[in-house]
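haha ok so turns out i had the wrong file open the whole time. this is the CORRECT one, sorry everyone. sequence first:
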Amino acid sequence: MASVRVALPLAAVVCVSSLLMSGGVAGAALSSANTACRDAIAKTVVALEDTILNEQIKCHQARSRGVLDAGVDCSDPDDASFPGAAAVAKRAAQLAAGVATKCAKASAPAANGYASCASPCDVTVPAISSYNDVAACLICQTKDTAADAMRTIVGFSPPVQGAATSAEKCQDTYVGKGLRTFVKKRLTEQRKCQLKEDKGTIGATDCRTADLTGAVAKALAKLQASVAKCTDADLAALTSCASTVAAEQVCVSAAGISMADGLFVATYPEPTTSDGCVLNDNTTSTSTVNPAGCAVLARDTSGCDAARAAAGLSGYWRKFSCRVTLSQGAGGVTAVADGLPDYKSNYFDASNACHETYTGAIQNPNEIAARAYSLTFPAAPDTTSQAMRGAVVGLALNGVPIFGNFAAPGDDIYQEARTFDRCGAHPQEAGAYHYHAEPYAISYNDANFIGVMRDGYPIYGRRDPDGSLPTLDSFGGHTGVTADSPSTPVYHYHVNEQTSTNAGTNGEKQWFLTTGTFRGTPGTCSGCN
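then structure:
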């Protein structure tokens, strides 16, 4: 069974914690030009995602029945043999034309929150200077998000049934069409809500989750009912995200919510306003959002990139936030950081502008405090493995330290995980904020670069660049290509799933950043214990 999503309890899927993802200042209407622009973007994104899902489903149906060559990737609308390419291209052209027309009188893209295009679409759209760039970015993100959702519900290489079997009907009709209907309804209701907020007819509202009319809840129930028409035997013949109907209802719902919410956040970034939190300057929310509402952030490093290039830094080192000071010497690269996150957290003091309210986890009694970290990463990592000791074992690209997959003596790391904030971290008693597990503001179920471990090896998200889950060694890594080394295989770590065997948390799973052992010798570190 090719499971590509973490199964969530159904209540967690439905009751996603609230987060203000919508644009605009609380209680203030946007200009009519900006309102019309944003609504036009949203309408055309909904139309494009619906067209893509429809064409993907038709393609998978034909492939499953043996009408279409099995080598066609029906989840990828950019696949050279994708039969729905013309329909998708037509709808994409309509999106571009509509945005150009409706946004002609709007403020500059950056003022409406469209500052940069998130990975992997930043390759296609490296910079946003016009609404043509905004359209191109959203077209790419919609395709990518649809491909991710489809691979969740059918797998990466779904079996060819050879005929119109009950399993094929389960995959393409009950699951596929059910997902398509739900995503369109959720996005449409989100757009209607956001239009009201942008016009000022309702106050500040989290339109990602508001469901003002109850239509989204009804659509989710219909999706559940549609998936329930499958049988466990049908699912056993498929490569969907679950092997039982009950679990399939959960993971398909999660896929639909993730797709809709991701596109909503991409469509409605927050217009440029100052909320007093300077830590999140130069960051923009992407379309990738975890179930707790933490968006993977795009970080603008243009302010420090030239200096880093001049210092001889290249590759992933130039992805580090400008809040991290980097230098290069004979011994390797040295990073200096204060350890503060570049997003809001419930662990900041309540009087801090970067404090947010979050009730989705148990809060420990500690508060975030600035620290002084200086880590030197070996220029030539070796293979003299060592057990991880102390606190800091690596540094994330935003300057937040990485801790191991273990808790303080006598504690259970799986219980500690229940105290993580929305973005997957917490502070210890001295205020040192840190990650043990997948850092959701950097990576969520993807192949993103996360940071560098103290032995000098980089760490990436759960997946390889081709979207697959890699087979890892005992250190949590392997040798293969990465987004930063696409043609030459290199050793690197990955976020990896582990299961508790501890009493009280036995069977609980967590995507940790380490296995507890370095592959090589760690470099020096000041402030790390």
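Residues 295-524 form one domain.
again sry for the mixup
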